[in-house]
Design goal:
Blueprint lengths: L1 H16 L11 E6 L11 E4 L2 E4 H18 L3 E4 L6 H10 L4 E8 L9 E5 L4 H16 L3 E6 L12 E8 L3 H7 L5 H19 L8 H5 L4
Parallel strand pairs: 1-4, 1-5, 5-8, 6-7
Antiparallel strand pairs: 2-3, 6-8
Helix pairs in contact: 2-6, 4-6
């Protein structure tokens, strides 16, 4: 199954590179993980808008899809991490793809339907350089309370050697956030995508070690 994912990924990568775009993102391999989704019951948290459920997994997938399109337009190579049941296997798939960075997209939840803030999780010291510009961009565009970058052994960031972050951009259990997702515009999704894009551009524009991934180094490609 992994071989199939990688074969499809490599084919799409060639198509993206042929576009010839030039930016700080050109040629960078960015692994995007949409949190949860490993089974029909693995939906993450659930918010409600006038009784209509909004599943976190659907929001995660939508953000990833929109971000993938935006990044590829600028010449990046996006690897969509398969929604495997093991977080470790998800990271291994990103490493096998030679990813420069890994972003695990999540949205928070609470029994308090007014709770809403932005938080980012990291584990390794190398994750901080990636987390800083992305978290800053998310806070700026979403306008929510900033609960900071938390150094914790949480989620996928505890595995592997790729600079990685896990983001909780906002609470999908907040009524306003849930209702926004049901609109045609999906303004919050677009704001989040823009923040990821800006943060990644900032990360790759500097000499932060982002030009050659650990996965590529292991394969002797750089």
């Amino acid at each position: 199954m992994k071989k199939l994912f990688l074969a499809v990924f490599l084919l799409s990568s060639l198509l993206v590179l042929s576009a010839g775009a030039t930016s700080h993102l050109t040629g960078k391999i960015i692994a995007l993980d949409a949190g949860h989704g490993s089974s029909a019951t693995d939906v993450g948290t659930t918010g409600y808008c006038d009784g209509t459920p909004v599943k976190e997994v659907d929001v995660n997938l939508k953000v990833r899809a929109e971000l993938k399109t935006k990044l590829e337009t600028d010449g990046a190579i996006v690897f969509e991490v398969p929604q495997l049941s093991s977080r470790k296997e998800r990271v291994e798939a990103a490493e096998a793809a030679g990813a420069n960075v890994l972003i695990s997209i999540h949205h928070n939840g609470s029994t308090d339907t007014t709770a809403d803030y932005t938080q980012t999780f990291i584990t390794q010291n190398s994750d901080k350089k990636l987390a800083n510009p992305i978290h800053k961009a998310l806070v700026a565009v979403l306008g929510l309370p900033d609960h900071g970058i938390k150094h914790d052994g949480y989620g996928m960031t505890v595995y592997g050697s790729i600079p990685s972050i896990l983001t909780e951009a906002y609470f999908i259990t907040d009524t306003d956030e849930a209702c926004d997702f049901l609109t045609t515009e999906q303004a919050r999704v677009q704001q989040e995508v823009g923040a990821f894009y800006d943060g990644l551009n900032t990360y790759f524009s500097g000499d932060t070690g982002g030009s050659c991934s650990p996965g590529q180094a292991k394969q002797g490609k750089c």
